[in-house]
Amino acid sequence: MARVFMKGCEAIAEAAVRAGCRFFAGYPITPQNEIPEYFARRMSEVGGVFVQGESEVASVNMVYGAASMGTRSMTSSSSPGISLKSEGISYCASARIPMVYANISRGGPGVGSIQPAQQDYFQATKASGNGGFEMLVFAPSTVQEAVDMTYKAFDYADRDRNPVLILADGVIGTMMEPVVLPDAKSDEEVAAMKEAKKDWACVGHKLDYPNRAWIEPGHWQTSDMQRANEEAAAVYASWENEVQVEEYKIEDAEIVIAAYGISARISKSVVDMLRKEGIKVGLIRPITVHPFPYKTFDNINYGICKAVLDVEMSIPAQFVQDVSIGVKERCPIETCLSSGGNIISREAIIEAVKKINEKQGV
């Protein structure tokens, strides 16, 4: 297949269109603006609908409505905009409505900066909204991965009837790389996917709530809510088979870097550079950050590993908490951090690795 040169945000939008997304509502915020801009041009070409809502809150609730009718639907934003969408995302989880959204994250907290950061990790993996619902959360480190994850995310959302998040950052969203785009769903395939949802979707018929799988949030009986929570928990438990992770040169590693997204991409180049100097470094890169690949950390040779180095663009560190659970106090954990829009540098990671060696008297 032909490779095309695309910006990350535009590639995400094109992947969504090709996956059969036919409704997008969003609101401008840097650095994700190219996603709604691309949809604004593209949706009319495939018979879809684009809406620029009057706010993030309005936009996510438009997605809630469109997805409730069985249409593959998506929204996107950056950091504080995602916070505003959190109630609508929680409502989709509550009503078991499939939708996909992307967070092209920036510095914070608050309005923060417009530059890239990884300071939304807790929000993405631990508390994307009230009620304790969970989501599959994918963290790309290349534009190609962002394309592949977005395309597949709609299948996961439909299968589980649950929101799915693409957790990217301003680097992935704004950089340009060659990508191979997936085949576009045909009009017939898009129609068939919508038809397959008619047993629960709002399609104009009178809903028989006791016998149907869709319940409007706010119309719960206590027993119904507990049952729905139990059913959702069973779905979450099934995701153990969906864990994705990259292990890179950890077999003989004396220092293992743990990182995700753009930080992992930068760290991987550091591994190759330090290996040339004879420093045995490896990398664990979670591709799904929820569920988290805790078991992968059992593959570290703790007999020779001096430390695990957590690399992330967040101060204070967030990702490190899941790393700590995986390590289980079997070796020290050090950190190499940046935040507020400062992209982690290879030089900083190299310095952090060499400081660990100095501590060990190497």
UniProtKB/TrEMBL annotation:
InterPro entries: 2-oxoacid_oxidoreductase, PFOR_II, Pyrv_Fd/Flavodoxin_OxRdtase_N, THDP-binding, Transketo_C/PFOR_II. SUPFAM superfamilies: Thiamin diphosphate-binding fold (THDP-binding), TK C-terminal domain-like. Residues 253-347 form the Pyruvate:ferredoxin oxidoreductase core domain. NCBIfam families: PRK07119.1. Signal peptide: none annotated. Residues 14-198 form the Pyruvate flavodoxin/ferredoxin oxidoreductase pyrimidine binding domain. GO terms for molecular function: oxidoreductase activity. Pfam families: PFOR_II (PF17147), POR_N (PF01855). This is 2-oxoglutarate ferredoxin oxidoreductase subunit alpha. Keywords: Oxidoreductase. It comes from Parasporobacterium paucivorans DSM 15970.
